[in-house]
Amino acid sequence: MVITAISLAERARVLLERVVDPDIPYLTIDDIAILRGVEVADDGSVTVTVTPTYSGCPALGVITSDIESVLSEGGFADVRVEIVYKPAWTTEWMSDAAKAKLAENHIAPPASVLDIVPEVLCPMCSSGEVRTVSEFGSTACKSLMVCTQCGEPFDYFKAI
Amino acid sequence: MSTVTTRNPLAAYIVRHADDNMVIGQRLAQYISRAPELEEELAVANIALDHIGVADHLFTYAAKVEGGGRTGDDLAMLRTEREYTNLLLVEQEHDGFGELIARQFFFDAYQALLWEALADSTDDTLSGVAQRAAKEATYHLRHSSAWVIRLGDGTHESHRRIQRATDRLWRFTAEMFEADDLDRQMAADGIGVDPSTLRDAWESTVDSVLEEATLTRPEDSFQTSGGRTGVHTELLGPMLAEMQWLQRSYPGLSW
C-alpha cells in the first residue's frame, strides 16, 4: 500500500478551493487572486493571507468566515485569516483560466491595465463595438457596458 | 471639554483620513434612492462603499496601532463630534445633485493626489491602503469631473446650480491644504504627506475642469477651517447622531 504524504499546507489549499467569491460564485478566491498565502505552523495552526479587491468590497467579510469554516470543518483547529494590503490587488493577478470563466458567464474579463485603449469584447457576440454606459455597475468591481453590434447590455470586470 | 482621540500620533494621523472617508461615505449614502437616474444611483452607492471601505480599513488599523482595546468600529461609532477630525468640506450637506457633485469633485481631486503620495509611505499598511484607494480615486474623479462639465456646460438651470454649489463650497477647500504639526511630523518621518504640497496640482485640475465646464472659479475670500481639531460646522452633529444611534442605543450590537 502506498501512502501519499500530502503536506498540511497543500491540504489546506485543496480545502480552500471550495471558497468562492460570493458575488461571482464560479471563481474561487485563488482564481480571483484574493488568496495570497497559506502557512501551517509546527503546532498545526494555519494562517491564510488575503488581499482585498476593492476597499469597500462587502464580500471580504463572507470570504473570511468561509475560509474559517471550511478549514475548521477540514480538521484545522486553529485558523487565522490575515488581511494584507501591500502590494495592492490588481486584475493582472487573475489567471487566464479565471478570465475565461468570466467570459463563459457573460462577464467581459478585465483587459490589461497596461493597455492604453483597453480591448473589451462583447461576451455575447465577441464584437469590439462596445461602449460604457456607467463606470459603476452592479458591484464595485464591474462597470456597465452595452454592445452596439448586438445591443446586449453586459458587465465588464474593470481592469485596475 | 476633553477631545482626546488618541495620544498616539500615527493613530491620530490614520484616524483623520479615516474620518474624511467615513463622513463623505455617510453623506453619499444619504443620497441613495434620490439620484436622477439609475446609473447614478449605482455610482453614488459604489463610491460611498469605496469611501466607507477605506474608512473601515483605516479605523481597524488605527485601533491596532493605538493598542488600547478599542476596535475600528468603536472609533467610527462611539466618538463624538468633537473627537471627529474630518475636513469641514466632507460634512457639508447637499441640497441636490449639483452640490453633491461639487463637494465630491473638490474632494476627489484632493484624494487622488493624497493617495498617490501616501502610496509611497514608509508605513506598509497605510501605503497598501493608499495604493488601492488611489486607483479608486481615479474612477471617482473621472466621474465627478464629467458631471461638473456636463452640468456646467449644460442647460441654463444646471449651470446656475453647479455654479452656486461651487461658490458655496469654495470656502471649505483651503482647509484640505492646511498642514498642522501632526502633518508635518508624519511627512518628516516619511509616513505621511504635507498637504500644502498638493495644492498646486489640485488647483490645476480644478481650474481646467471649471474652465471646460464654463464655470467661474470663485474668488479666494474667507476660508473656514477647524475640522482637524474637532471644531465642526453645525452639520456634523446631526449626521453622526443618525449614523451612530444604533450602537449608542444598543451598545455592542453586531450582525
Topology:
The complex is a heterodimer of chains A (160) and B (255).
Chain A: H1 8-16, E1 20-21, E2 24-28, E3 35-40, E4 46-50, H2 59-73, E5 79-83, H3 96-104, E6 107-108, E7 130-134, E8 142-147, E9 153-157
Parallel strand pairs in A: 4-5, 6-9
Antiparallel strand pairs in A: 1-2, 3-4, 7-8, 8-9
Chain B: H1 9-29, H2 38-66, H3 72-77, H4 88-91, H5 97-118, H6 124-152, H7 156-169, H8 181-188, H9 199-212, H10 236-249
Helix pairs in contact in B: 1-2, 2-6, 5-6, 5-7, 5-9
* Low-confidence regions of chain A: 1-5
How does the major sheet of chain A shape up?
Answer: 4 strands, mixed
Counting helices, strands and paired strands, the structural category of chain B is: mainly alpha
| N- and C-termini, Cα separation of chain A | 50 Å
Just give the CATH class of the largest domain in chain A: Alpha Beta
Helix content of chain A: 10-25%
Integer tally of domains of chain A: 2
The tally of domains of chain B stands at 1
Please count the helical segments of chain A. 3
Rg of chain A, rounded, reads: 18 Å
| CATH architecture label of chain B | Up-down Bundle
**Biggest interface in this structure?**
A-B, 23 and 28 residues
- How does CATH name the architecture of the largest domain in chain A? 2-Layer Sandwich
Binned, the helix content of chain B reads 55-70%
- CATH-wise, what's the superfamily of chain B? Ferritin, core subunit, four-helix bundle
- Alpha-beta content class of chain A: alpha/beta
What's the name of the CATH homologous superfamily of the largest domain in chain A? Answer: Fe-S cluster assembly (FSCA)
Strand order within the widest sheet of chain A? 6-9-8-7
| Strand coverage percent of chain A | 25-35%
Low-confidence stretches of chain B: 1-5
Outline:
Chain A has 160 residues and is of the alpha/beta class.
